[in-house]
Amino acid sequence: MTLSITPLNTIPLIRHGDNLADILVKSLADQNIELQENDILVLAQKIVSKSEGRMVNLATIEPSPQAIDLAQKTEKDPRVVELILQESNEVIRSRVGAIIVEHKLGFVCANAGIDHSNVAGYGDANEEYVLLLPENPDRSAKQLRDQIKEKNNINIGVMIIDSHGRAWRNGTVGICIGLSSVPALIDERGWKDLFGYTLRITVIGVADELAAAASLMMGQAAEGIPAVLVRGFPYPLQEGSLKDLIRPKEQDMFR
Are residues 138 and 227 in the same domain? Predict the structure, then answer.
């Protein structure tokens, strides 16, 4: 098996209202790439959020007393903390510089995924913008997939990824936060290993594995590669969803 990950390096800076399907199709054509059955397009959440208008001007945010209190404890901008609270179900942990929350989408992450890097706003220099995660990444992925399929009549998958930390290891990695026609998990319970042993607990988070690999090609700073084409994914394409990847709270031993 061969897995190839090809950066799409002709994508312009994305603004609110841009048609990502058209932009992706044009980028593929610019690089003489023809979509094939079972290809997967992996997108950084930033371009999805920008196209959907999830950019917020901090000058418009009035922090609540709760946000001001938490901002003092964490030494963060109280306006950003207000947005973190608005985007979260609950605050799980906090320390100077970081607030760990359960996001409204259900997963645990730092600062509700609110991003300040590679975010450009509009207007004068007194305005300061941050970017929220897409409101419904699964829906965003499906809409993109359907639009691209309508243009090309090719069965592909679409994933939206973000960089998250992990409770038990240092460093951020790419994880999947939205997907369409890509399996989130592959359940290998009942499969045989090389020696005939029957697997009992092996469930693979294939969407997150692919997200981490794609993130290597995208980078985190000034690389300017917000999307990649994946070819050779070693499992059949099938429907998955973000909720498949989220461990139920009662099974989360790190809460």
Answer: yes
Residue pLDDT, tens place only, 75-102: 999 999 999 999 999 999 999 999 999 9
Q: Of the residues 131, 155, 182, which one is the last residue of a structural domain?
A: 131
Backbone angles phi, psi at 211, to 5 degrees: -60, -40
pTM of the model: 0.92
Task: List the one residue out of 113, 111, 93, 89 whose CA is nearest residue 102.
Answer: 89
User: Residue 34 is part of a domain; what is its CATH number?
Assistant: 3.30.1330.100
**194 CA to centre of own chain:** 35
What are the tokens at 145? 């997939």
Kindly state whether residues 39 and 149 are assigned to the same domain. yes
**Is 65 among the domain residues?**
yes
Pairing of the two strands 40-44 and 157-166:
parallel
